[in-house]
Amino acid sequence: MNDSEGDFPKRDRSNSNSYRFTWFDWFCLWYPPGWLILFNRHWQHYHADPDGWNWLEYGLFLIPGGFYLALLLRWLRLGCRSPRCGDCQFEPNYQSAFRDEVLAPILKYYFRASLQQIENLPEKGPLIVAMNHAGMSFPWDFLGLACLLSQARSSVVQPLAGVSLFEHPWVKWWLPPGWSQVLGGVRAQLEDFEAALDCQTIVLYAPEGLRGPRKGWKKRYQLETFDPSFIQLSDRYRIPILPVVCLGNESLHPWAVNLKSLARRLNLPFLPVSFLMLAFIVFPSMGVWASRSRLHYYVQPLYQPPDPRPPPRQGRWAAYRQAQLLRSKMQSQINDWLKKTLRSPESDRKAKSLAIEIYQLSPPSDSLGCRNKSRPPHPIPCP
User: Fold this and answer.
1) pLDDT tens-digit readout, 178-201
2) Structural domains in the chain, sorted by start
């Protein structure tokens, strides 16, 4: 197979029910406060949404501070209550529609995403796809890879997502009720992870968990400790792991610093502070937007579960060491990319400075990247 340089297949428009981009949708694509409108309009095309946003409120999204008035109007319209959230189930047909009709144009024209080295991508069978996660923003690196993989394999891809993406009050007001579940999101909890693997699907997983996006701009090229849970589940269900290195996701929210203590008080996975947050305060509908960046995904050779399985007493530690070995290999791929792309004298100086910075920030570790030998980390991180 050849590399996929953003060649997104066109959706069959013969179906009269398909969502068609209008001039307003293209306007929303290139005007950051309009991305939330695009997501909700597409949902309302396929689903009844009496509690959702209406056209007057969409118009208010587009003016400075208008979102706050739109939020007040919607709250009053709903009788001073939050939007109702029913018991939503995964809808593969809607995932396919959203992928081809919304994600594909965004990835092609805005993020210019590409899937490289797809000769390493198996043609069939279930997979655990392990990807580095960064950006401190809406998880566009995850959505991009899920879209590209599902198109390359014509398969269902379910990303493992943090619980906050399902339950946080801000998400319930921004996006339609059950949006994450309907699109195939899997809660980052052990029982949900196991249930998804039991369905023999492709599960997209971030071994760094929230430590990935939380690390911020200063450590953007440094991979955090990998949780061993995906290695253990791969061994248990005999499902291979496909490592994928994403480059460009570090620039989805450039120059961001994470306010950890305030984020905990607000029950947020992270709270970034940067010059872009000034625009977010004026246009809160930009919460699903991210800075323009080229997203390149490099598919790595497949990892097969060991045969025979390690003894139960050694399983946890063996999985932990194997996870850090995989982290070390992916870190080497990122470092090689930096060497290839930063070639000018000024870039060489910056690259050396960045390498020294990464070395100084990294805690002492053994050759496998194991940072704390006293105990392995808690299972199932939330991307």
Assistant:
1) 899 999 998 888 888 888 888 888
2) 85-94+109-361 (3.40.1130)
